[in-house]
Amino acid sequence: MPFPSLSPAQVRGTSFPRKRGGKGYDPAQVDAFVLKIADALAGRTRMHPDEVRRVVFHELPGGYDQRLVDDFLSRLEWQLREGLVPPTGMRSGSDVLAVKLPKASNGYDRGEVDAFVARAAATLDGRGRMTASEVRHTRFSTTSGLRRGYQTRAVDALLDELEQEFRSRGR
To answer: What are 73-106's pLDDT values in tens digits?
Structure first.
């Protein structure tokens, strides 16, 4: 049964409700596996769809609702099997600059991220030479304590989307 395709950023940003009054899937295991799938959809790693079908998670009280996780993984298995990744919404530099990244006490250095986002925006507007590979291999310093950074998960989702957009443009 075909499903609408999800971008790596959408997969990375997915969360599941916890099961009340019973056991559910271990959230740490599910979250780690979903991030691996997002990386596969972004082209960072390879994952065979059968890996999604065969995954087994431990169950514990208050874990993620198994049915919702299983349904989501079925959708991603189908998407991996079909090799589908939808186009992104990052059509111009203004689209990138409009993204509001949440701040966090432990996150990526805001100055480094802001400079990177400005370069990516310039490239989308035809004034730069950033590539999908450069996006994939970008690393930022992290902050802690009083210096607040950008939430790592949100920045990683933006990187997934930028990488996919550059790849679709042959960059």
So the answer is: 999 999 888 876 666 777 888 888 888 999 888 8
Which residues on adjacent β-strands are paired with residue 24?
A: 60
Give yes or no for a contact between 143 and 109, defined as CB atoms under 8 angstroms apart: yes
Q: Give the residue ranges of the chain where pLDDT is below 50.
A: 1
Note the pTM of the prediction, 2 decimals.
0.61
- Tokens matching residue 78: 């189908």
Q: Which tokens in the block code for residue 67?
A: 């049915």
Amino acid at 27: P
Q: Number of helices and strands (H, E) in the chain?
A: 8, 4
- Strand residue runs (E) in 12-78: 23-25, 59-61
| C-alpha to C-alpha distance for 58 and 102, rounded to whole angstroms | 31
How many angstroms from the chain centroid is the CA of residue 14?
Answer: 9
**What angle, 0 to 180 degrees and rounded to 10, lies between the N-to-C axes of helices 152-168 and 110-124?**
20
- CA dihedral (41, 138, 14, 121) in degrees, to 10, reads -90
Amino acid in the structure at residue 105: S
Cβ atoms of 61 and 95 closer than 8 Å: no
